[in-house]
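Predict fold of SDR family oxidoreductase; 250 aa.
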Amino acid sequence: MSTDNGELGGKVAIVTGASRGIGAAVAERLAADGFAVVVNYSGSAGAAEAVAAGIEGRGGRALTAQADVSDAGAVRRLFDAAEAAFGGVDALINNAGIMALSPIAELDDAGFDRLVAVNLKGSFNTLREAARRLRDGGRIVNFSSSVVGMLQPGYGAYAATKAAVEAMTSVLAKELRGRSITVNAIAPGPTATDLFLNGKSPELVERLAKLAPLERLGKPLDIASAVAFLAGPDGAWVNGQTLRVNGGII
Ligand code: NDP
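Predicted 3D structure, encoded as tokens:
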């Protein structure tokens, strides 16, 4: 176990939804930067264990913690587990999220409610806990999406949950005045993960990949680099902002 790794030695980050996709890349990157990392997941225990084992194999510190972010009690226990293992929490990376595409006319109540429960209420649950418990000097990075700018058909409910996250980002940055805690959001564009790829034909994936002037999909590592900037020393003066990380798609 490493005990010190440059400026971030001793800092602790909770990464929600870190068993797969962008969250796993973020957990690995923050651990490489010196954070002790709590690898949160909802269902994929084996994948989360593999992420944590990989971090520890490279000399980092990691703990897995199951919690459905839509459950406020589970989120409280997630923070309890982080504090018990590592002594406190310095960074919350609010990555857990789900996507469901449907025209508004065809989206049923259950589908709408689930998007709101995970993406909006889940972000609220973790933000409330972080606002109460993060150590001074801490960092919060929320997850929006570039669809908030693109606003294509089919993304109505999903984009609405992410627009709400952007609003809470700016409000919480102001509410935390005096504690030297920054609150920002990352808004990825199309990124090669299960969330983006599932249910899309190779032709559609290829077409969407070419939309950005950089003519490729984002990789989880591209997004992790931006999160590491906001969570690390170089991002100290960025506060209350949403950063679109999307190869220039919008
Ligand atoms: P993935 O579907 O690849 O991974 C989602 C992760 O979130 C998994 O680790 C999953 O854990 C976890 N998760 C899902 N529901 C819950 C829950 N209720 N509680 C806790 N964890 C949960 O998604 P991505 O990596 O692509 O997305 C990460 C974030 O980036 C999301 O907020 C998404 O909206 C956003 N985003 C992604 C884009 C993309 O193109 N990929 C574009 C724009 C934004 P488990 O497997 O255990 O359920």
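The chain has one domain: 6-244.
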